[in-house]
Design a protein that fits this description.
The protein has six helices and no strands. The protein is mainly alpha-helical and 189 residues long.
Length: 189
């Protein structure tokens, strides 16, 4: 953080002292963009870079400007985050015909962005599946509760039936006892 502050102050001082002269509007826009980018003022940096590239898309150092502009659009903490614009700019640098020191870094960032998109998609799929499983679990919990209640009712009905069978067995035994008492003894032979 301190190094960035020193960089911003050094750039500002060099510009004020006349060591760095911005001779054209694109050059001034690029310098303004670099100062804002170093200060993490991504909206101002993006605006300045876009202005400079619109004025002279083939200006010397424009590949570095495109790379920093892509970063301003790509960084998660950037208020002007726009991954589609960032991917377009990085794609131009990674797949363009011009030789640039930003080709490999741009290709790497594109790969990371694609991996991030795939991971986001997988996370969305997992989230959807988790929501479905939670709904199924709630349904299953409800079904288990209903089955438990039905089982309790069946147990109560079974206990009632067993009590009735026991009463009927007692009554049958009493009838047998009465019948045995009524029977006449058989005549002796």
């Amino acid at each position: 953080m301190r190094a960035r502050g020193v960089l911003v102050l050094a750039l500002a001082g060099a510009i004020m002292a006349g060591c760095i002269t911005a001779r054209s509007a694109p050059d001034r826009a690029f310098v303004d963009g670099d100062l804002a980018f170093a200060a993490r003022d991504y909206p101002t940096a993006a605006s300045a870079y876009e202005r400079g590239l619109a004025a002279n898309p083939a200006a010397p150092g424009s590949d570095g400007v495109r790379y920093r502009l892509a970063l301003a659009y790509l960084l998660p903490e950037s208020p002007v985050q726009d991954s589609a614009r960032a991917k377009r700019l990085l794609g131009e640098l990674a797949n363009g015909n011009a030789v640039t020191p930003y080709r490999d870094a741009s290709a790497f960032l594109l790969g990371l962005q694609d991996a991030l998109t795939a991971a986001d998609s997988a996370a969305d799929t997992c989230s959807t599946e988790l929501a479905r499983l939670e709904a199924d679990a709630r349904t299953s919990d409800g079904n288990i509760k209903l089955r438990d209640e039905a089982l309790q009712r069946q147990r109560a009905a079974l206990a009632e039936l067993q009590a009735q069978v026991h009463r009927l067995q007692d009554e049958l035994q009493q009838l047998k006892n009465i019948d045995l008492r009524r029977r006449q003894p058989a005549p002796p032979r």
